[in-house]
Amino acid sequence: MSDESAETHTGQGWPREMWEWFKMMAVALILVVLVHQYLFHVSAVRGNSMQPTLEEGEWLFINKTLRYAGSLQRGDIVVLREPADAEEGPTYLVKRVVAVAGDEVHIRRGKLYVNGKEADEPYTETSIQDGRFEPLTVADGYVFVMGDNRRRYASNDSRSFGAVPLSLVEGRAEWIVWPIRQWRNL
């Protein structure tokens, strides 16, 4: 009789065990989606617009919580949706915040000026080679972004599409996480 009860228990347990496994996987999937959507994700660098700071193929840890708590500052590296989205879907850019709301941005003689003072930009290797940019005051809820590579036509940034609404900023890049030998804070 004990053999029969063992078989009956196993027969009843299999569907229950599958249901428990399914619930656990569903909860895990929901958690992964929520973390990716609202907290952080990993993004790959494409192109050379952020050289020498970032190289193509590096992976960045992106902190998305700044959308809810905190604000962007000059010098932060961000991932943003390109303002002129392609029809196929969003294009993401990696850029540096060079001016925030209320700042006046001006480019002349290959130098960036913020609020009338030449910006200290130790992360660039060249002067700005794309000519002049007349003074622009960044509106509330916007940031002005540029790539670190200042060679002519190297970066599609606020010089071509203007200040970026904060709603297009996906998050701030905190670390390079791949390749491992490049792991560092940004």
TrEMBL record:
<dbReference type="GO" id="GO:0009003">
    <property type="term" value="F:signal peptidase activity"/>
</dbReference>
<feature type="active site">
    <location>
        <position position="95"/>
    </location>
</feature>
<dbReference type="GO" id="GO:0004252">
    <property type="term" value="F:serine-type endopeptidase activity"/>
</dbReference>
<keyword id="KW-1133">Transmembrane helix</keyword>
<comment type="similarity">
    <text>Belongs to the peptidase S26 family.</text>
</comment>
<keyword id="KW-0812">Transmembrane</keyword>
<dbReference type="GO" id="GO:0006465">
    <property type="term" value="P:signal peptide processing"/>
</dbReference>
<keyword id="KW-0472">Membrane</keyword>
<keyword id="KW-0645">Protease</keyword>
<protein>
    <recommendedName>
        <fullName>Signal peptidase I</fullName>
        <ecNumber>3.4.21.89</ecNumber>
    </recommendedName>
</protein>
<feature type="active site">
    <location>
        <position position="49"/>
    </location>
</feature>
<dbReference type="InterPro" id="IPR019533">
    <property type="entry name" value="Peptidase_S26"/>
</dbReference>
<feature type="domain" description="Peptidase S26">
    <location>
        <begin position="18"/>
        <end position="178"/>
    </location>
</feature>
<dbReference type="InterPro" id="IPR036286">
    <property type="entry name" value="LexA/Signal_pep-like_sf"/>
</dbReference>
<dbReference type="GO" id="GO:0005886">
    <property type="term" value="C:plasma membrane"/>
</dbReference>
<dbReference type="Pfam" id="PF10502">
    <property type="entry name" value="Peptidase_S26"/>
</dbReference>
<keyword id="KW-0378">Hydrolase</keyword>
<dbReference type="InterPro" id="IPR019756">
    <property type="entry name" value="Pept_S26A_signal_pept_1_Ser-AS"/>
</dbReference>
<feature type="transmembrane region" description="Helical">
    <location>
        <begin position="21"/>
        <end position="40"/>
    </location>
</feature>
<dbReference type="InterPro" id="IPR000223">
    <property type="entry name" value="Pept_S26A_signal_pept_1"/>
</dbReference>
